[in-house]
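Bumping with the actual sequence this time:
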Amino acid sequence: MNRLKVLITSDGYRDEINGVAQIAAICADEMRRRRIDVRVLTLSDKKFNYKNGDDYYLQSYRSAFWPEWKKSFVRKHAFIDEIVAWKPDIIHAHTEGSTGIIANMISDACGAPLVMTSHTDYAKYVFGRFHNTFPLTIAPIVWGYFAYKHASRVILPSEKALTFDQHKFIKDKATVLNNGINLHKLQKSVPPGERRELMRKYGIRDNKKILLVVARLAKEKKITDILEWTKKLLEKDPDIQLVIVGDGLYRQKLEKQAEKLKIKDAVTFTGRVSPERVYRFYNIGTLFVSASDFEVNSLSYIEAMACGLPIICRTDPCLKGILENGVNGYSFENGDEFGRHVMQLLENEDMRLEMGENAREMSARFSDRHFVDSILEIYGEIITKQVEVLYNDSL
């Protein structure tokens, strides 16, 4: 029996610190573990095209308006010809951007069905607080129609995504599937010596109660709110330390805010941390906190749960199926609720430990194996349907 051949496309991949890139890598790794023939087409941070095994990298540039986005003008290349000649059985695009456009081209060229995962609320990302203002509401609807027009199925990471304007015309082919994570890579203990070295490096004392943020440092993550609320918490408990793991264009502004609030000594910015090493910070955390309402299905929430941290997150539809109030953490509407939940857990260790254990157990439902099982089931349905259509057309 021939091995299933899957092409995965994503503008970000493996070494990038964002959820979309990591989901593409998780899919590729787990499918390859199952001996599925997987090739990945992604964008390079270099000025040239190159290949690493079955991973193809196309040269790209950073967008002037949104520097976190990579784009590529490459549409014809020997790599693309090679993939077309390979004839994938199915193509899975994790982006509507450059490699998503190429995925559509390859699908047309070789007849492979196209699956797309839509990870981002582009209207909110591009237009910010004006995204619900007419006529700006028209743009994502029109764009979404053309972006997903040729997809056989569109996977959405949460029910929240069903409400996005860009998805207005895909309800009949949309499937909601929560993201998955590699539990094995996260649920590793940190030896005492390594833990001490990590805390020494970042100036964190052992007696500190660590509020952990793991995120791309961008405006929409609303880490500014966390800093404001941390100042108030420090008045109640000076042993609190805020550790912000990640990097991004907003870092300088956040550092200046911490200095202005006079809490600089209680805030640690780690900078960029590779996905393979981020588990060490979850291991030293006391609580995971987030003020973002931009998430579609945040991996960091699930990662924190997998490492046994209660999660305290701003109320948002994306939390459905992830956070159960009073079981594995709390959701909050404002800063007062945030502070009350944080102090409640910091002052009650038994409750915090119980919620942490609940969080760890609940994270099992988001394992990469369950996640890829569901994706492969979707692939099977689409391929079977395509075979039936081709058979009926031949009669």
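The tokens above came from a reply further down the thread. The first strand starts at residue 5 and ends at 10.
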